[in-house]
Specification:
- The complex is a heterodimer of chains A (200) and B (265).
- Chain A has 200 residues and is mainly α.
- Chain A has eight helices and no strands.
- Helix content of chain B is 28%, strand content 23%.
- Chain B has six helices and nine strands, in the order H-H-H-H-H-H-E-E-E-E-E-E-E-E-E.
- The longest helix of chain B has 23 residues.
- Classes of the chains: A mainly alpha (200), B alpha+beta (265).
- Chains A and B meet through helix 2, helix 3, helix 4, helix 5 and helix 6 of A and helix 1, helix 3, helix 4 and helix 5 of B.
């Protein structure tokens, strides 16, 4: 069970299509599914809770009013929403930096260090978390044991009773899916194979 | 060149296997395989960091209400001209020169109660803003008051200005001018406005999405100086609108636009 996406839901394709078509129930569903991911992006990068909620609200309003521009062939609905959210957050961060600069000119104080992770990294984590939640259960279970419990493949085989070769096969496939999704929907700059639609 | 098996790259990236001599030699010379290992290692790092994302808190219900209110607001604005506007919808020919069709029709009366939240959204959503005002400093024009005492602002630096023309069925002799000064104030000069049972209100409108906010009220005089929110982006909120408002309990735009113009630097 992930907070990014609930497992029991119908495939996203249907939701994305209805969202694009202007079915208002799809806006609510998208919010129920992905509102917490967008809010997490905003709260983990913006210091002010009220700013974070405003950015989240603006993301969904902007996405709904601009739903014509969502192209499902270029990435997932979550990836698209996080892209909009990232721009809202970055705008807010820049505005804050500007306000701070103005205030500092007056007060002659040194530049404050901005805390928190950068929005691109948060988007990438959310995208990978969502993909992890979508993997077939065996692949997800093996990867979670490797990621969260830091178990070797041998240890995973021992813990789960699954043959080592099968463990390796699940992990190999799961990793390939995570990487593919990150390439499509991720935000952080980095090398990407040519021809893949980057989500930027 | 034969690339390494992808499964091997995954296990190397996860630190599950050590590269043997042949693999090390290959990775030293093959940027593709090396890049693949780096990407996989990065993705594995992201995967490790997803643990805390499994139980994210749901946003508060008020946030959804805010989204819904904004969506209603935005959707009501273009539709308002067809429904609740009291006068004939303006035609292209009625639009003031230079504004083109980018200007949305005058909005219908909007619902109350959401306005406070909405205004706050506009203000905070546009903080990218100071930039717009700062950005135009490069094209400053110093305007000397040619009208002597009729110009309450005296000598001011004008960042942007807009000729205001009669809108819709407003008598064509009604006109005006809007100027944005570098002290953040909007100066309006109007002439021949038709008499209205209520009062005149000044608005800034974003023609792209129909959003707007009230700048203030125009009294009975021909000039007024109104402070603008310091964060407003005038490249977005580029339309100056003067409306006829009634003394009712509706704080929204009446839909009766008298003058309009587009701010230009």
């Amino acid at each position: 069970m992930t907070a990014v996406r609930q497992r029991s839901e119908p495939p996203e394709d249907d939701l994305a299509d209805r969202f694009r078509a202007g079915d208002e129930s799809a806006l609510r569903e998208a919010y129920d599914r992905y509102g917490r991911a967008v809010l997490h992006l905003a709260t983990s990068t913006l210091a002010n809770r009220s700013d974070a909620e405003d950015a989240t609200q603006a993301t969904f309003v902007g996405a709904w009013l601009g739903r014509d521009t969502f192209d499902p062939s270029r990435g997932s609905l979550l990836g698209w929403l996080l892209g909009i959210g990232r721009r809202k957050v970055v705008d807010r961060l820049r505005a804050t930096a500007r306000e701070n600069r103005v205030a500092e000119t007056v007060r002659q104080l040194p530049e404050p260090v901005t805390g928190g992770p950068d929005p691109e990294t948060v988007v990438d984590r959310l995208v990978v978390a969502d993909e992890l939640a979508r993997l077939p259960q065996d692949q997800r279970r093996m990867l979670e044991l490797a990621f969260y419990d830091d178990l070797t493949h041998q240890q995973i085989a021992a813990v789960t009773g699954v043959p080592l070769g099968t463990v390796k096969s699940h992990i190999r496939r799961g990793m390939a899916s995570l990487k593919r999704r990150w390439e499509v929907d991720g935000a952080a700059p980095g090398p990407r194979p040519a021809g893949l639609p980057g989500a930027r | 060149m034969q690339h390494l098996d992808h499964g091997r790259l995954v296990f190397l990236a996860l630190g599950e296997s050590e590269a043997d001599t042949d693999e090390t030699t290959h990775l030293d010379t093959c940027a593709h395989c090396r890049g693949e290992v780096e990407s996989l290692r990065h993705v594995a790092g992201l995967g490790t960091s997803t643990r805390s994302l499994r139980e994210l808190p749901a946003p508060p219900e008020a946030l959804w209400q805010g989204i819904l209110a904004d969506v209603r607001e935005a959707e009501a604005t273009p539709a308002g001209a067809a429904g609740s506007v009291r006068r004939q919808p303006p035609t292209e020919a009625d639009a003031p020169t230079g504004t083109g069709s980018a200007i949305p029709p005058a909005p219908g009366a909007r619902s109350r109660g959401r306005r406070v939240r909405w205004r706050r959204w506009v203000t905070t959503g546009l903080t990218a803003a100071a930039a717009a005002l700062l950005g135009v400093v490069g094209t400053l024009v110093v305007v000397r008051s040619g009208e002597g005492t009729t110009d309450p602002a005296g000598e001011q630096v004008v960042l942007a200005s807009a000729p205001l023309a009669a809108y819709g069925p407003t008598p064509p002799q009604a006109r005006g001018e809007a100027r944005v000064f570098d002290d953040g104030r909007l100066h309006l000069h109007v002439a021949n406005l038709p008499e209205v049972p209520g009062y005149y209100e000044v608005w800034l409108i974003n023609p792209t999405n129909g959003r707007m906010f009230s700048v203030g009220v125009l009294g009975t005089g021909s000039d007024v100086l109104l402070p603008l929110p310091p964060t407003v982006d005038l490249t977005e909120y580029s339309v100056v609108d003067i409306s006829a408002e009634r003394f009712d309990d509706d704080p929204g735009h009446s839909g009766d636009s008298l003058l309009r113009g587009v701010l230009a630097r």
